Amino acid sequence: MSEPLIFMMGNFSAEFPQTILYAKNHMWSVQTEGNAYRFGLSAYAVRLLQDVYFFDLTIEPGMQVKAKQEMGSIESKKAESSLYSPVAGLVSQINRNLLDDPTAINVDKYGAGWLFEMQLDADAVGQLLSPDQYMEHLNQAWEVAQRTIKGQVNG
């Protein structure tokens, strides 16, 4: 198995498996069976959120969702945020275990902390990023995040 890519977030490191795909909204994705893809939050997103304690989905299996459609919400020590679909597809499964106890998002983000599965629309896979493309995206996103954290969004 290949070594994970590491992205430094100040003094903290975030690891990214090279065997999966990523989305610009900081979700990871892995193909499960057929055209089904499982999604979760990347180490970058989990590190920014810190200590997720509430997770809710407004989607159900059988629902067709569009890219960037709101799918639920997440709350943590640092933020409250809506969750948006990274791509278009048909929801096939949600991780109901997280609805009762979302701590797996914090401790096993690339395993038990998965959020949902979808059957992807035909062009959706091409919208996902390779690990190297995601690292390039993170370099840009981290600059914006640092300014936001420091209250310098307009600077």
Question: Mind explaining what this structure looks like?
Answer:
The strands form three sheets. This protein has a six-stranded antiparallel beta sheet with strand order 3-4-5-11-10-7. A three-stranded antiparallel beta sheet has the order 6-8-9. The chain has helices at residues 43-49, 96-100, 103-107, 131-149; strands at residues 5-9, 12-16, 21-22, 27-31, 36-41, 52-57, 64-65, 70-76, 80-84, 89-94, 116-120. By secondary structure, the chain is of the alpha+beta class. The chain starts with a strand and ends in a 6-residue tail after the last helix. The chain has a domain at 27-127: RNA polymerase II/Efflux pump adaptor protein, barrel-sandwich hybrid domain (OB fold (Dihydrolipoamide Acetyltransferase, E2P)). The mean pLDDT is 88.
Please name the CATH architecture of the domain at 27-127: Beta Barrel
| Structure class | alpha+beta
CATH superfamily annotation of the domain at 27-127: RNA polymerase II/Efflux pump adaptor protein, barrel-sandwich hybrid domain
Kindly state the number of beta strands. 11
CATH-derived topology of the domain at 27-127: OB fold (Dihydrolipoamide Acetyltransferase, E2P)
How can the largest sheet be summarized?
6 strands, antiparallel
Q: How many helix segments?
A: 4
How much helix, percentage-wise, in residues? Answer: 10-25%
Please tell me the overall pLDDT. 88
Morphology = globular
Oligomer: single chain
Strand content: 25-35%
Element-level helix/strand string: EEEEEHEEEEEHHEH
Side-by-side strand order of the widest sheet: 3-4-5-11-10-7
Low-confidence stretches: none
| Termini gap | 42 Å
Radius of gyration: 15 Å
